[in-house]
Amino acid sequence: MTEPDIMAGLPAGVPGALAEHLASLPLVDNHVHGYTTAAMSRADFELALNEGSLDPVPAFMTQFDSQLGFALRRWCPVRLGLPAHTEADEYWRHRSALPLDEVAGAMLSGAGVERWIVDTGFASDQTASPTELARVSGTPSSEILRLEFLAERLLASGSTATSFADDFGNALRARGDAVVGFKTIAAYRTGFDIDWSRPGAAQLEAAVSAWIESGRRRLDDPVIISFIVHAAADLRMPVQFHVGFGDRDMDLHRSDPLLLLGLLRQPSMAGTPIVLLHCYPYHREAGYLAQAFDDVYFDVGLALHFVGSQSVQLVRESLELAPFAKILYSSDAYALPELHLLGSVLWRRAMAEALGGWVAAGEWSLPDAIRVAGMIGNGNSRRVYGV
Amino acid sequence: MTEPDIMAGLPAGVPGALAEHLASLPLVDNHVHGYTTAAMSRADFELALNEGSLDPVPAFMTQFDSQLGFALRRWCPVRLGLPAHTEADEYWRHRSALPLDEVAGAMLSGAGVERWIVDTGFASDQTASPTELARVSGTPSSEILRLEFLAERLLASGSTATSFADDFGNALRARGDAVVGFKTIAAYRTGFDIDWSRPGAAQLEAAVSAWIESGRRRLDDPVIISFIVHAAADLRMPVQFHVGFGDRDMDLHRSDPLLLLGLLRQPSMAGTPIVLLHCYPYHREAGYLAQAFDDVYFDVGLALHFVGSQSVQLVRESLELAPFAKILYSSDAYALPELHLLGSVLWRRAMAEALGGWVAAGEWSLPDAIRVAGMIGNGNSRRVYGV
Amino acid sequence: MTEPDIMAGLPAGVPGALAEHLASLPLVDNHVHGYTTAAMSRADFELALNEGSLDPVPAFMTQFDSQLGFALRRWCPVRLGLPAHTEADEYWRHRSALPLDEVAGAMLSGAGVERWIVDTGFASDQTASPTELARVSGTPSSEILRLEFLAERLLASGSTATSFADDFGNALRARGDAVVGFKTIAAYRTGFDIDWSRPGAAQLEAAVSAWIESGRRRLDDPVIISFIVHAAADLRMPVQFHVGFGDRDMDLHRSDPLLLLGLLRQPSMAGTPIVLLHCYPYHREAGYLAQAFDDVYFDVGLALHFVGSQSVQLVRESLELAPFAKILYSSDAYALPELHLLGSVLWRRAMAEALGGWVAAGEWSLPDAIRVAGMIGNGNSRRVYGV
After folding, report:
1. Which of A82, A160, B366, C238 could form a disulfide with A86 if both were Cys (CB 3.0 to 4.6 A apart)?
2. Which ipTM did the prediction report?
3. What's the rounded Cα separation, in Å, for the pair C45 and C63?
4. pLDDT for res A1
5. CA of B111 vs chain C CAs: smallest distance (Å)
6. What angle do CA B304, B276, B355 make, to 5 degrees?
């Protein structure tokens, strides 16, 4: 078997027309990274199956024994001509003997994506660029600019306390034409429980001055973080926020998106699409914000592949309070091209099972279900990012 | 089709006797508002489908594309002689051409409610009164008194720092005979993370004095809020708390009901039924409190209709830690008579699917399931409110 | 019927081989208490069905009307020769006429446990000892030492501000050979939002001195609590943490395990297994920590029997982010031998339904499902506790 039927095994009640629609729907992956282009050992590969940890996988276990590992063994071997549920060792042996381009091509083309929207702000020298993603997959790509990364580069290259505000605004505008949106990792740097009011000029100058004097490189000053978010929002292009599930350096509970209420309520934010990424385990809270604010969107991103067969419940929970025009698809795949595929496959199956069940119960009509699948799969992102 | 079979499409395993019981069970709707009596535009109607937002629905979307919108299109058109899943435009055209009394009568009578317990504390001049609700539905109504509203009226009409404590107590007792309970919206005014100890006389006097001097009308002083809650609790009538899901003016995370522990543990609260309303996404926490305190009750209120086909999962999650004698039904319908119907229909279906599944698995007996449906649907509220 | 088929009523898709494996799998119950050996009234029995409350069950209800009560009536009567779903009065009449040893033997032997790991730190004079548990069940037992209990005993018997650090370390080492791990109830004493850095000698001495002078017996000083946790962790034996669901004396929200991040990140913790117990409603957060830290494990403990038929959803939610090598089984049974049985039965059924559904959907292979059941049921605990 070289081509899986990705709708195999769904409950009997799922309407065929919905399953077929979801199996072939072109997706906009509104937040994704490149896969690692450097050589990887088996240990590197296993570590890439763990988002939270920073340590090697301990000897008593394998990271393949997880929802993500099982989903990978279910869906990825068949893209390489191996049977579903191939054992980890066998999969690794086969996969690591292939050229990376071949693996990446098989996985990325299998994702059925019409556009990759790529965050290039992390480890960009070791990961495939948007251009490379486009090449191996035959799918065009767009780019997202990470705000903290831009600010750090400006400060490292001579921006001063008095020039920083202008320098940052100019750099944003200069880069704005080349990207389709911005991203902030405030969740990692300060948490969301900061004062989100727009800093005054003097306040910002003092903060930048103090930060430069401190000699630090990692930008974690709340005044500067608030400034760069407001500056980006002024351009009315989408601003993505990392929310929830990430590595253990982050205080997860301080990334509850409800802590952004003080920012979202500010009139100056109106008109700027705010995209809350991942959100687990705060995806219900994200759905609330997407109802409460015209400009708030969200996705469940990498949680889809990390929870594997639990993605059905995750997708259902993401379909509660938010209007359907405010929910997006992303894989947030990183490091392994397998993850670019898995986000897509698991989302398609979970949507088919969730929506299909509601159609079978007579609660949704079939045309509505097909339409909503399209909105979340691509329509909303096309509108938000202009792609 | 003018009369829906509200149990259509449930899973095969749901016992017929349980479905029939739930289809016709008379409900006590323990927290509900009037529907809007003023003329509504299509835009007003759409906005009323959104609890969180305060802005018009943006042009790029319709609020009908949501779980609530789909549930409305599934269950409400059939009450007006239209097919299930009627398109939004067609529904609006038909519905808006009918007299409001006819629409309200069709929806409210379809809810199968034996008593409306009505919160009249919000926009009462633009919404149907308890008497009007009773008239159009043929169902008697009772009233709930909103504490902050009473306090604000007293202060606006000459109550002073020295007289307020007595004035409030007298007014409560004077109104107490006409109502079946009280309600606090402390969640909106202060959040629950305040000092809930009973204010001393001097402390209260100082707070009232400062508040009068401030010239504000909206009561948000934590000392005064704590006082009015304690004063109401002293009467041993039920006190309802808005908890969780509401509009974006509220800090949702500061309405986690666990933040009420400091209040609930006070010996002077014993004997006063405390009803936690709505609670989403903190309904599991509410269920915990309903187990931990003899006098705590809760419902999932408006979350039922807002999450639409996800109400099954919501109801299941509300049936975890709480003893079944501590769970109530409410619709928390507001503005649209459609919501008075939807709370009822979705609750009946969700209960049938949840309890029916457990009976089918042999985990619950059928008589127990029927009995628990009755406790939550009406028995517990009859006992708590004496109706 | 005297022997139930504990897999009766599962969905049709659950593979027989998985159900059979789970029906007979020997379990390590990694956190359990003794049942009460003193005479119990019906009122005592009902109160033991409520974890959160400290008051008698009110007259208007019975605690049997709960998920736990229904699960008990489903699974326990059949162990005593009565039909499933026997009414509460009838069950109590029959059960209370039997010798406790007979009831306990029937329940504990039905749990299919290969080892009890017993927390003897609470009410140990009124509950069955590890030896008694072993005797009535025919299953060996091991012991867990409660840290706060040990510290309190030392301080009550003459340990001083200057000797406490050494006294505690010596006592730990002296007891360490006889136990397989330690437990902290910091959740009850201080909450997790304390400074978890290791106290210096002078800081600890000052804290102990102040505490001795205060004349208190209940240890709730955050410096001393932090010290005893660090001291136990130094021995590299497992340290269990009470997390989440407990009685109302605890600030539940201050036991969110994410508040332990400051402790878990400390390099000196590496190599010490940390077991997060119960965790409800923060089990998703616990799963995150189990992914993020090599040494973090968790179970859902007493939540299994308290949520009864909702244990399927609970188990599914516990199988999201955590690698399968990091999830354990426990009953956390206390007071009633019925609970020793129910944890086991509900876990077996929930695992069969959850994993069986994923196998039926083709997402997991059957051998993987059988293997993971074994890891969680006994393999992981055998490794962590060396039993």
Report:
1. A82
2. 0.97
3. 9
4. 35
5. 27
6. 45
Run of H or E residues at B165: helix B164-176
The neighbour count for residue C334, using CB atoms within 10 Å, is: 19
pLDDT given for residue C337 in this prediction: 98
In a mutational test of the C interface, the residue from B193, B272, B288 whose CB has the highest number of chain C CBs within 10 Å is B288
- Give the CATH number for residue B128: 3.20.20.140
Q: Is residue A2 part of a domain?
A: no
Average pLDDT for chain C: 96
The answer to whether residue B1 scores a pLDDT higher than 50 is: no
- The pLDDT of residue A10: 96
Does residue B11 sit at the C interface (CB-CB below 8 Å)?
no
C325 touches chain A (CB under 8 A): yes
Are the CB atoms for A280 and A334 separated by under 8 Å? no
Which residue of C258, C317, C325 is in closest CB contact with A253?
C258
Overall domain count for chain B: 1
A177 backbone dihedrals φ, ψ, rounded to 5°: -70, -30
Cα distance from C253 to chain B (closest Cα, Å)? 6
CB B368 within 8 A of CB B18: no
The token pair at A272 is: 């700027």
In a domain, residue B10? The reply is: no
Q: Does C383 touch chain A (CB under 8 A)?
A: yes
Alpha-carbon span B204 to B225, nearest angstrom: 10
Low-confidence ranges of chain A (pLDDT < 50): 1-3
The nearest CA of chain A is from the CA of B132 a distance in Å of 30
pLDDT, tens digit (0-9, with 9 covering 90-100), for C278-329: 999 999 999 999 999 999 999 999 999 999 999 999 999 999 999 999 999 9
User: Is A253 in Cβ contact with C321 (below 8 Å)?
Assistant: no
Which mean pLDDT values do the consecutive 10-residue runs of chain C (387 residues) have?
Answer: 75 96 98 96 95 92 98 98 98 97 97 97 87 97 97 96 98 95 98 98 98 95 98 98 95 98 98 98 98 98 97 98 98 97 98 98 98 98 98
Size of interface A-B (CB pairs under 8 A): 94
Q: Identify each DSSP E strand in A16-168 by its residue range.
A: 27-32, 113-119, 141-146
- What tokens does B366 get? 């059928």
The boundaries of the domain holding residue B112 are 20-385
Residue C4's pLDDT is 61
Query: What's the distance, CA C285 to chain centroid?
Result: 17
Residues of B in contact with A385 (CB under 8 A): none
Whether residue B360 has pLDDT greater than 60: yes
> Integer distance in angstroms from the first to the last C-alpha of chain A?
35
Q: How far apart are CA B19 and CA B353, in angstroms?
A: 9
Q: What pLDDT score does B4 carry?
A: 61
Which of helix, strand or coil describes residue C72?
helix
List, for residues C333-354, the tens digit of each pLDDT value.
999 999 999 999 999 999 999 9
Contact of B307 with B337, CB cutoff 8 Å: no
The answer as to whether B14 is a domain residue is: no
**Chain A contact present for C259, CB below 8 A:** yes
Helices (H) and strands (E) in chain B, counts: 18, 7
Contacts of A60 in chain C (CB under 8 A): 325, 383
Of B259, B264, B365, the CB nearest to C85: B365
Taking a contact as any Cβ pair under 8 Å apart, which residues of chain C between 85 and 124 contact chain B? Answer: 85
Q: Do A65 and C325 touch (CB under 8 A)?
A: yes
Q: What is the pTM of this model?
A: 0.98
Residue at C7 is within a domain: no
